[in-house]
């Protein structure tokens, strides 16, 4: 059985700006909402390298850089673009929408 997608509002769209980065739990998923180059993105919120949350990470260029060991992931594709202790899978990228002035994730 396929469940219908659900919209989880995360942040007022007007609060987004380049460099914005904040983690949330939505529908049981840890996600990170970011914006760079005027384009928002929502990816999984826990680093797949060693399970560190992205809550204190930052955006570097077009990547999110994990503050634990410096792994970097492309904001658009989730692909790992830099690693320090060996290659790793990319991050899941979640669809997002803006509804009633809020940006949210669709799960
Ligand atoms: S836990 Fe993120 S780089 Fe190691």
Structure description:
It is built from no helices and eleven strands. It has strands spanning 7-12, 21-26, 29-36, 39-44, 58-60, 63-65, 72-74, 80-82, 93-94, 96-99, 102-106. The strands form three sheets. A four-stranded antiparallel sheet has the order 2-3-4-9, with no helix packed on it. It has a four-stranded antiparallel sheet with strand order 5-6-7-8, with no helix packed on it. It has a single domain, classed as Rieske Iron-sulfur Protein. The protein binds FE2/S2 (inorganic) cluster (FES).
- Please tally the β strands and state the result: 11
Order of helices and strands, N to C? EEEEEEEEEEE
> How many DSSP helices?
0
Classification by helices and strands? mainly beta
Distance between the termini: 15 Å
List segments where confidence is low: pLDDT < 50 over at least 5 consecutive residues: none
- Cα gyration radius (Å): 14 Å
- Helical amount among residues, as a percent range? under 10%
What would you call the shape?
Answer: globular
**Beta-strand content bin:** over 45%
Give the domain tally.
Answer: 1
Largest sheet: 4 strands, antiparallel
- Architecture in CATH? 3-layer Sandwich
Mean pLDDT: 96
């Amino acid at each position: 059985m396929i469940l219908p997608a659900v919209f989880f509002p995360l942040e007022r769209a007007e609060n987004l700006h380049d460099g914005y980065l904040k983690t949330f739990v939505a529908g049981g998923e840890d996600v990170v909402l970011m914006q760079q180059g005027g384009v928002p993105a929502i990816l999984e919120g826990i680093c797949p390298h060693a399970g560190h949350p992205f809550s204190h990470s930052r955006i570097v260029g077009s990547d999110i850089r994990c503050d634990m060991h410096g792994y970097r992931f492309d904001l658009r594709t989730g692909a790992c673009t830099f690693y320090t202790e060996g290659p790793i899978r990319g991050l899941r990228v979640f669809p997002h929408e803006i509804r009633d002035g809020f940006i949210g994730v669709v799960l």
